[in-house]
Queue: 3 jobs
Job 1
Amino acid sequence: MSVISEMIRNLLTRPVTILYPKEKVTIPPGFRGRIVVSDEKCIGCGKCAVVCPARCIAMVDNQKEVSFKGKQLVRRKKPKVKLFKCIRCGLCERYCPADAIHVSSEPALCGTDKDAVSA
Amino acid sequence: MAHVVIPVGPQHPALKEPVNFRVVADGEKIVRLEIDLSYNHRGIEKAAESRDFIRVLPLLERVCGICSHSHATCFAKGIEELMQLEIPQRAQYIRTIVAELERMHSHLLWLGVAAHEIGFNTLFMWTWRDRETVQDILEEISGNRVNYNMNEIGGVRCDISPEQAGSILKRLPLLEERIGEYVKMAKSQRTMLMRFCGVGKLSRAEILRYGAVGPTARASGVDYDARRDDPYLIYNTIPWNVVTDEDGDVFGRTKVRIGELRESLGMVRYCLENLPGGPIRVQAPKTAPSGGEILSRYEAPRGELVHFIRTNGTDKVERLDIRTPTLANWTSVAAALVDQNLADIPVIVAAIDPCLSCTSRLVVADRKSGKTGNISWNELRNGVCRIRPGSNRI
């Protein structure tokens, strides 16, 4: 009887459930969590806003001098991400030419306000 | 004896998704089943027409929460065929690995749900525990447990590193052992045999008449699998077998799914061990050719999935029509329920692994004249419809 042997085996092993908050689930590298924008690297090209399927990235006015591929240039805009509208598909990260926007491994927060934006 | 009509749903505590069953019963025996679908219409086909090929894939993944990779791959391979784009071997292998892992997690989920429906909740907990291993592997590869977003037109988004491949290969023997346990359990466990054997039986002729697909059809001896009969990705180059069964009942469908678990595991192992080098994507053109039409077929875990794609020379589709496997299987459920016990409804319905929100479509039908049609944008805006909406009763 495979069910009984399985039951006995389960009795002799630790529970599979993790006892949160004493133990925490390890988040694998490459996990798609919250979006992080690097203010130093962003050149304000707006490609992330164009590819975003959820339309959660808006380009807002922000003038700053940044370096891109060894050249100095002045950006006009920077992305503003609506955190709870983001579906964390990672397309912005994939298409960013300056490696400035990332889906970090930090867990994304939950919320109901779809217009709440990152700092 | 007079027939009794038992209405179930659309809102009902036992239903996970909204559907309306009207069960006509004669005492304990079911005489007929009437189904009303489409309480969960989301307008994804229409929304797909307004998104370019980059932005449409995350949307299509959300057609289904279980077979998300299936929808994205089915669409991507259709568009790639229209663009006459040959994707790199490595990308094809990675797509296959994710597809087969997805099939494993879907079948393990189904086994748990079927056990739950017959009141065998212990097995439900065991299968879902083992499914976590598959989910963890998928999360490591793609960064997400449900919507993997692996595909893009021209290849895949992320690569599998040698370390990742090694770590996955290490975990496969444990899964193999667990699947072996389920094979033994399904053969010898009295609870399962009593509730699955002879329940919801469909003959091969009935399956062919109602056009059922996937494990439902294969359990009745229909030797058909889109992976073998209309090969895509690398299925015609790797070793695997189509699993069929002659029982035709819920027990047969269980055996087919457990058999497919084994085959999928073998395929994942083979692909990881023989993963070719090279790029994972090629640059795809921005637009698809004008006037292109394609019927892209894909063997999703629940059965054959079909995407009809029409392109018009832009970077968006002109029309996308999705035929999900559940839609093809519904009619067979209505036939399988006839003459069965009322208590067997949950397990017979669950045996096709129904995904209700995937099947929701809107067809406006007039019962008297028999006319059917779609609603135009203007009619939607003005709230007036030419044809009065009726029920799409099966």
Job 2
Amino acid sequence: MLLQNAIADALNSADWAFALAECVHIGGFAVGVGSIAVVDFRMLNFGLRHETAARILRYSEPWTIVALILVFFSGLALFLSQTDIYLVNLVFPIKMYVLAAALIYNFTVHRKVATMENPSPTLSKWVAGISLLLWAAVVFGGLFTGFLI
Amino acid sequence: MSIAHSIQSIGFLSNFSESVLAYPIVMSTHLLCIALFGGMILITNLRLLGLTYKSVTITDMIRSFRPWKRVGGVIMIGTGLLLATCEAEKYSPNPYFWTKMIILGLILVHGQIFRPIVYTKTEELDQSPVVPTKAKIAAILSLVLWTAMFTMGRLIAYWDTD
């Protein structure tokens, strides 16, 4: 409660603090989703054909994780600054469910198939396509949440 | 002001800004492009800085991403144009919007300067044991410009006329 109030005060007292949290949130998801998308890009056989998806995932993953942590904390700060508004927002809970699905999918199915020795091209493509769709849905959900506030 | 008013009064633009769904959908698409194609730009820059993706050659990376970055650029400019023109009266006095446009201009200048010496000379970069300084400068400037770009984009919403 105390933490919630402190963060809310900091963010409400200065517009720039809310703006800064939003910029970190946007920059963070660009890095997070971008680093996942580059793995999908390889799995869809769109390019980077000289390297395996497994290797690209290995390069991407630390960036994905650090970025997702930044997105999580900046998102939490935004949420705590206007809790009452988010709680009655129609899109916000949908976004959270899709986000949970995207995260679970990313670190289970997606990771598993990306690191397979010789996955079937069809399987890889489907897994990558679903990954892109899930993350696109999270981004859309985020923007629509903002629009309904 | 009157030019701005005439622009946003063009039939389809006023229909567009009054639509409950179309406006946020176009804005989400604009934002999604930042994640997908901005991500590609970022990853290319990290590679040029020699920070990661080291076993992927610069040539392979730049060639693979090039057509997609172009598609992304067209979608980003297209959706951005739609968003700005349908609210031309709100955007035309907004200093953040114009700062963003100046940064966009600087990004184009960056491309013109570094294309002949970095982005079309990738084989040369790959042969060099360490990534040459000119490529690192190009990457750092690109990171700074794109960060400024999306930050200004977000700040557009924070300016009001009062």
Job 3
Amino acid sequence: MARPTTVPRSDVLLTVMGAPYENDLLTSVLRLSQAMLEGGATVQIWACGYATMLTQRGLGDSKPRNLAAWEVDHPSTSLLVREMLLAFPDRLRWYACRFCSDDRGAVDHIPEVPVRAPARFAEHVAAADKTLYLGVM
Amino acid sequence: MTVAEEGRRALAIVERAYRGAVETQFSDGLYCAYLFHRHLGGLDVLLRGPAVGYAVRAARTPVPRLGKRELTTVNTPGDGLNVLLEAGVGVWIEEQDLRAYGPDAESGLLPGVRTVPAGAMAARWPGYRAVFYL
């Protein structure tokens, strides 16, 4: 018998397998999430692989300065994820895979992002009506 | 660097059209070219393959909304090329790949970008102090 889960139910689970900084996968993940959330859905995101780098506290709130546009602020991915979580309380959740985080030294996530052991991934799948896998490792 | 190499430009070949719009924003390959131009004492950029699209005017895409924020700082390669051109970087584009990009590609080419026959840039390599992919 399956053990009880503490993972909140969601309409959709997005499992981000592909790496950022390689193509526009992350842009698609965030825009897709935003569209579903604006439509009233509940969404959880499980960040695997190098997607675990996106929510590191060490990124701060801003990217490094642009020498060609010194006064323009460029938000970090950590800040963008935190802002999305704040904009959709209780309807968006972002989790980071512990193995992938440890494997990359990405061990200091922002406090809004819980770290989950890969053994619990099945619970997250079970808590979602639909699961989408995005990208490959 | 030898004395003979001083004052000579480097050539960066950009082939891979790549954005990573949200996470990369300004810090893409073209920004790296801007830094190399400043720090290596001069740079030319050759756009080939899918990267020719960087130099072709395109319709503005909608600004992504993330949470309550309109993210206006996603990267736009055309703007990145304009920064390079204003800084004195020579921007070249291979004609064959430009034609392959689309029938309107040549008429939509950004001002200041110069075209070159496919493979012709290789004949100029000896004039550069370094040639590398970016």
